[in-house]
Write a structure and sequence with these properties.
The structure holds two protein chains of two kinds. Chain A is of the alpha+beta class. Chain A has helices at residues 2-26, 183-190, 195-235, 237-245, 248-264, 290-293, and strands at residues 28-34, 50-56, 62-63, 68-70, 79-80, 89-90, 95-100, 120-124, 131-136, 146-149, 163-165. In chain A, strands 7-2-1-10-11 form a five-stranded antiparallel β-sheet. A four-stranded antiparallel β-sheet of chain A has the order 5-4-8-9, with no helix packed on it. Chain B has one domain. Classes of the chains: A alpha+beta, B mainly alpha.
């Protein structure tokens, strides 16, 4: 049974690890594309061509080196994004642009197909099989017009929801709201005197602590009742009542008196001890074992 | 080489060396900041005001304000310098959660568990944060800056550093020094406010002794406490997580060594590093601004508001409590999270009016609730403003 449990746990960990690895690349998505480029963004060679923008929707860096881009569902490994290029490490919530100019010799970010000749674009994981994202290419787009997710990283794969013809092209930047107000600015506008913040925040602080209060108030009551029942069973009603009425202060006073007695009485050595009135449970742990924590005395022969 | 040439070269070298010395680069700002550092050290050693904080900060201020020839890669703001590397813990905000781990491992929540209604005082005192936030907005600070300044009212240095590193990194030095200074001044700031807002009769209220708390309750508190607060304010995760984790190490009974490390060597190391580097960050050219003065004024204001709201809340609460269950309003000040100083202040002020009325144990309840409350408040500000 134990062995079965270990195998189960181990396989769970392995699966979780695989899943985590997959998840990081799975956070990438196709975010925007432009098919016909005559007067838009220009590449490092001064050429204008169609482009595909990918977006890292996670809050961690994703390395897309080794992933694939393709326009052919029957050939998922058509263009491999080269490994070892530092630029393929995409920072959190950042974009990366690929030129669809069929000129792969021009560098990492030039793929070996053109969007004018493609029905769809597929982003494939580094295993060459798992499709991370795919989008149908709209051929009826105007020249220099781009199609993309309205909000970065949000929308369906088939382009039916969350996608639209964008008002302006936004290669390597946010599709909407690069000029969006920060949370701080919004607060300044809607709450210039801090009243809304004070009321909201104090309500949340109170809510959190009231919840704790309710739980521990009731748990305390339950505990007192249980202790009383237990004491009544063992010592009878009168003794149980007396025990219940004994406050923590009395225990502290007893402990202090014992400590002072121990310190004053010359029959005792002065020891650095803490007096505790509590049942001691001895749970073995190698972390507290002398065998593991103390070095043996040097052996003098 | 003739003698004259040799002497000229030596003189040139000495003259060049002089340009590198602190004397050549000193400004009045540096001298003033060094004087402030010396005052901190004096207060710590002579007056015994929070020496564990003020000695490292005070000496840090002196280190940070030795006039430097720029480009030597030694200043705290020069990338790659030793001080800059140590400062990363402040800048990236990873010292404060480690301090919270230690605080959790040394905090006994029994007072709170035995009388959970004291939690609400810890919540009420957080109003100081939002009161100061509103005033800072009126003074022209941006909401993010106002939030970072307001947290000084939580009387929690690590939380103030954590939040300011995220919301207003430029003001972090002033906010941190202000927060720690006022924490040291708790025995000076709070008593007048407490006396002003309470009647003689209220100060003499004797509270019911706390009941004995079972070990199971103590073990459950950090787990339930963490789950509830973190689910409500996930942005406070680093602080809340470490605080409750540290407490579980203490209460579990099976991780004594880890708890001892967290509340001993670990927190000591981090306290040294945080103190010195925060002090270093107060370089005259960055620190001596009108904004810093405003921050000190706002810090004091938020402390006073927090103390007042804590005391007033207890008075209001007493209206609804039966005779015999009433709370002494002198423990209201302990809702700020300066542990255990504000609880000690409650006790001392209480003893002034009744030599037999020891409020320390009762005041520890709102005091540790204040630690939770200020971490929750920081999480809310971070969630709204970042």
């Amino acid at each position: 049974m134990k062995r079965l449990f270990k195998i189960f746990l181990l396989s769970g960990l392995v699966l979780a690890g695989t899943q985590l690895y997959g998840q990081s690349q799975a956070d990438m998505c196709i975010n925007e594309y432009l098919v016909y480029n005559t007067d838009d963004f220009v590449d490092d060679y001064g050429h204008k061509s169609g482009w595909i923008e990918l977006f890292n929707s996670s809050y961690g860096t994703v390395n897309i080196g080794g992933c694939y881009l393709t326009n052919d569902p029957n050939n998922l490994t058509k263009y491999i994004i080269p490994k070892g290029d530092v630029l393929t490490k995409i920072k959190p919530r950042q974009h990366i642009l690929f030129w669809a100019d069929n000129q792969p010799h021009r560098g990492t970010f030039h793929v070996n197909f053109r969007l004018e000749e493609s029905d769809e674009v597929i982003l494939v994981a580094s295993d060459g099989r798992t499709i991370i994202d795919r989008i149908k290419i709209k051929k009826d787009l105007d020249t220099n017009a781009s199609y993309g997710r309205i909000e970065d990283g949000i929308g369906t794969r088939d382009g039916s929801e969350g996608w639209n013809l964008l008002q302006r092209t936004s290669p390597s930047t946010n599709n909407s709201g690069s000029d969006k107000e920060s949370a701080s600015t919004i607060f300044k506008r809607i709450d210039p005197y801090g009243f809304i913040m004070a009321v909201t925040a104090m309500s949340v602080v109170f809510l959190a602590l009231i919840l704790l209060y309710v739980v521990f108030k009731n748990y305390g009551k339950y505990n007192i009742r249980k202790n009383r029942e237990r004491a009544e069973q063992t010592h009878g009603k009168q003794a149980a009542k007396a025990e219940e009425e004994t406050s923590a202060e009395i225990y502290a006073a007893i402990a202090a008196a014992m400590h002072m007695y121990a310190m004053d009485d010359e029959s005792h050595d002065i020891e650095n001890t803490i007096l505790t009135i509590a049942r001691v449970t001895k749970n073995y742990s190698p972390w507290s074992s002398k065998i593991y924590t103390l070095r043996e005395n040097p052996c003098k022969k | 080489m003739d003698n004259q040439g040799l002497f000229t070269q030596i003189a040139d070298n000495l003259s060049q060396f002089l340009q590198y010395t602190g004397f050549a680069n000193a400004t009045w700002g540096h001298i003033l900041m060094i004087a402030i550092g010396l005052v901190f050290i004096y207060l710590a050693i002579k007056k015994d005001w929070e020496p564990l904080l003020l000695v490292p900060i005070g000496f840090g201020i002196i280190i940070g304000n030795i006039p430097l020839f720029p480009g030597l890669s030694v200043g705290v703001y020069e990338e790659g310098s030793v001080l800059n590397i140590l400062y990363q813990g402040v800048q990236q905000g990873w010292y404060p959660p480690l301090i919270f781990l230690g605080i959790g491992a040394m905090t006994d929540f029994s007072a709170l568990i035995s009388n959970p209604k004291l939690l609400l005082i810890g919540a009420a005192a957080q109003f100081g944060i939002f009161g100061a936030y509103a005033i800072a907005l009126l003074m022209g600070f941006s909401p993010a800056e106002a939030g970072a300044i307001g947290i000084i009212g939580g009387a929690d240095g690590p939380t103030a550093i954590f939040l300011s590193s995220r919301l207003a990194p430029d003001l972090m030095g002033a906010i941190a020094v202000s927060a720690y200074s006022y924490m040291a001044l708790v025995p000076v700031i709070q008593p007048p406010v407490m006396r002003l807002l309470t009647t003689n009769k209220e100060r003499l209220i004797k509270m019911k002794p706390p009941r004995a708390v079972s070990q199971t309750e103590k073990k459950l508190f950090p787990i339930i406490g963490f789950l509830m607060t973190a689910f409500i304010v996930p942005s406070g995760l680093p602080l809340l997580g470490m605080l409750f984790f540290g407490n579980l190490l203490k209460e579990s009974g099976v991780t004594r060594r880890l708890a001892e490390t967290a509340r001993g060597p670990l927190i000591d190391v981090i306290t040294i590093l945080i103190g010195v580097t925060v002090g270093c960050s107060t370089q005259a050219d960055k620190f001596l601004q009108l904004k810093s003065v405003y921050i000190f004024v706002l810090g004091a204001t938020s402390f006073i508001i927090a103390t007042a709201t804590g005391v007033l809340f207890v008075k209001l609460f007493n209206v609804f409590l039966k005779e015999g269950n009433k709370i002494n309003p002198l423990i209201g000040n302990a809702g700020v999270s300066a542990v255990p100083d504000s609880a000690r202040v409650s006790n001392n002020v209480g003893l002034e009016y009744d030599k037999t009325n020891y409020l320390l144990m009762h005041a520890m309840g709102p005091n540790v609730a204040g630690v939770i409350g200020s971490a929750v408040a920081a999480g809310i500000l971070l969630g709204f403003l970042s």
